[in-house]
Design brief:
The protein folds into 2 domains: about 170 residues, Rossmann fold, CATH 3.40.50; about 200 residues, Rossmann fold (3-Layer(aba) Sandwich), CATH 3.40.50.1260. Helix content is about 35%, strand content about 15%. It contains 13 helices and 17 strands. It has a 6-stranded parallel beta sheet, with helices on both faces. Helix 6 packs parallel to helix 8, helix 7 packs across helix 8 and helix 9 packs parallel to helix 10. It is elongated, with a radius of gyration of 23 Å. Bound molecules: adenosine monophosphate. Adenosine monophosphate (AMP) binds next to strand 14 and helix 11.
């Protein structure tokens, strides 16, 4: 696949034009208050740039999962209020149950260059989520006189909704925002054309959830490391006794195929050489658990593997440190439990200390890296869980695909 070169905000001439921006303001809320404003802060570079350049900015986003239309607890008002504290321009919240109704139209008509209007939750219009969203997509475009659409919500880019993809059919110009651009640069272009050696590290619970990621990354990387629950299906495929460890019996043949594919392509496929075992899965998950470490071919029949072992931590860490590009998705063990988080922590630390370009593919591994305080040591931490996994599968994300090339 050739390098993706999508138009971005710097390629737009927006002075005096209305620009609809799809942001991700899906912030965690409790009792009507925002508990973490990271996503709003993350959207500021794009918003500020458009404002400095004199655009009339209309922001839209979903928030939570309202089921039956408008519901106060899913209103974007709190997000708009928080945004107003973070920017140097006027922010108007367009309270409007239809999102693009009279209030929204009035707010947009009254705004001056550089100012911002925040629309109500796009999911108040169920249509945002269905294939019949064309009408809503057209109404969103109408609101900005069919001028410009900027996509900056990577976490929603794998869904072809009215506000992420549909709207592009009705506007003159489209571009990605800074957040999206960074995701494309790292998860897309760096993974497609990596500086080698390129090491991919995959973990998490099930092989079944990551079939296409395993296969796609195996083709791209020099070394594929498998840890976490899914390693035991690979170990069983190699003929090892894995005791009561998590195993996808239906995927053993698939693992055999992947092992053969690695050999055929001349790729290194690393599995845990030792493993941390316990009698049972901890209950509660973060409760006390008695563990010991055994070699991967010596797991007793009545024990289960819940983390990689100490020798494996060193093996994986060394591999990561000698790489020039590393992409990581999925924990190495049951990291919710401090005793079983050592493998995940060791990988996070190795990446933090590595000079390689380090890309964390969203979800649990991103959370682990942030929690351990390594966030600023990584080249890129993806903001999208499902979206980043689909991107690593090599899928074309509709919210990226529809944006005009440079
Ligand atoms: P995923 O959502 O596929 O990335 O998987 C994350 C989950 O995998 C976490 O909740 C971990 O607790 C779980 N996990 C990781 N290693 C194991 C293991 N060895 N056995 C059972 N679950 C695991």
């Amino acid at each position: 696949m050739s390098k993706l070169n999508k138009k971005n905000v710097e390629d737009l001439n927006v002075k005096g034009r209305k620009v609809l921006v799809r942001v991700d303001f899906n912030v965690p809320m409790k009792d009507g208050k925002i508990t973490n404003d990271n996503r709003i802060v993350a959207a500021l570079p794009t918003i500020n740039k458009l404002s400095e350049n004199g655009a009339k900015i209309v922001l839209c986003s979903h928030l939570g999962k309202p089921k039956n239309g408008p519901e106060d607890k899913f209103s974007l008002k709190a997000a708009a209020d928080r945004l107003a504290e973070l920017v140097n321009t006027k922010v108007t919240f367009a309270k409007d149950d239809t999102v693009v109704g009279e209030n929204a139209k009035k707010a947009v008509a009254e705004m001056k260059d550089g100012e911002i209007v925040v629309l109500e939750n796009t999911r108040f219009r169920g249509a945002d989520e269905t294939k019949n969203g064309e009408g809503f997509a057209k109404e969103l475009a109408d609101l900005v006189d069919d001028e410009v659409f900027v996509m900056d919500a990577f976490g929603s880019a794998h869904r072809a909704h009215a506000s992420t993809a549909g709207v592009t059919k009705f506007v003159k110009e489209t571009a990605v925002g800074y957040l999206m651009n960074k995701e494309i640069e790292f998860l897309g272009n760096t993974v497609e054309n990596p500086v080698r050696p390129f090491v991919a590290i995959l973990g998490g619970a099930k092989v079944a959830d990551k079939l296409n990621v395993i296969s796609n990354l195996l083709e791209k990387c020099d070394t594929l490391i498998i840890g976490g629950g899914m390693a035991y299906t690979f170990l069983k495929a190699k003929g090892f006794e894995v005791g009561t460890s998590l195993v996808d019996d239906e995927k053993i043949d698939y693992c055999k195929e992947m092992i053969a594919k690695a050999e055929k392509l001349g790729k290194k496929l690393l599995l845990p050489i030792d493993t941390t075992i316990a009698k049972a899965f901890p209950d509660p998950i973060d409760g006390p658990v008695e563990t010991r470490v055994v070699d991967s071919d010596k797991i007793p029949a009545d024990m289960m593997g819940l983390d990689i072992g100490t020798k494996t931590m060193e093996l994986f860490a060394n591999e990561a440190k000698s790489a020039k590009t590393v992409v990581w998705n999925g924990p190495m063990g049951v990291f919710e439990n401090p005793t079983l988080a050592k493998g995940t922590n060791a990988v996070a630390k190795a990446l933090a200390e590595s000079d390689a370009t380090t890309i964390i593919g969203g979800g649990d591994s991103a959370a682990a890296v942030v929690q351990l305080g390594y966030a600023d040591k990584m080249s890129h931490i993806s903001t999208g869980g499902g979206a980043s996994l689909e991107y690593l599968e090599g899928k074309v994300l509709p919210g990226i695909d529809v944006i005009q090339d440079k």
